[in-house]
Amino acid sequence: MFYRPEDGHGLPHNPFGAIVSPRPIGWISSRDGDGSDNLAPYSFFNAVAYAPPQVMFASTSAKPDRDNTKDSVANIAETGVFCVNIVEYAARDAMNASSAALARGEDEFAAAGLDKRPCTTIDCARIAGAPAALECRLTRIVTLPGRSNHAVFGQVTGIHLRDDCLRDGRFDVTAFQPLARLGYRDYARVTDLFELIRPDD
């Protein structure tokens, strides 16, 4: 099968998300200028550089009260900071609950039953007990082709690691089993690892 995206795929569901998978989930917490906290999961998320450490996430839809974007992007544009909370398998239901389209100013932490803690290097909340949290300062927001597509880039200024996830000096993802997004309504969790040594190592 071959198709051009502009012509449509002819399938019952769009296969694009299933092709580019698994995708890590950035559970993005932000705060607006009035101090209201927001939390939302984004599966177009990844690390993009080591030194200095940098991450990105993309938002691909909009709310009627947010001028062609969503609360996360609007808050970050206003305050210049955000936090990426890493999603563990045990938090899958809370993550899903936080994806609800709540009204502007409603707190997804409370709606999902999550406790929050203050960040250290930025004025933003983070999820208490998350396996890891990356405190970030905005570097740029890029408007992408298409409707309501925005990529947000940030430099990591502080990193929280949960103590039980550190084993033998390594951050062990099997300790919390990160959640990943597949296509459609499908998700996966990381339970097993294997190692490959690069030829030039």
UniProtKB/TrEMBL annotation:
Any coiled-coil regions, as ranges: none
GO molecular function, one term: oxidoreductase activity, acting on the CH-NH group of donors, NAD or NADP as acceptor
Flavin reductase like domain location: 20-173
Pfam entry (one): Flavin_Reduct
SMART domains given in the database record: Flavin_Reduct (SM00903)
InterPro entries: Flavin_Rdtase-like_dom, Split_barrel_FMN-bd
Gene3D superfamilies for this protein: Electron Transport, Fmn-binding Protein, Chain A (2.30.110.10)
Name of the protein this chain belongs to: Flavin reductase family protein
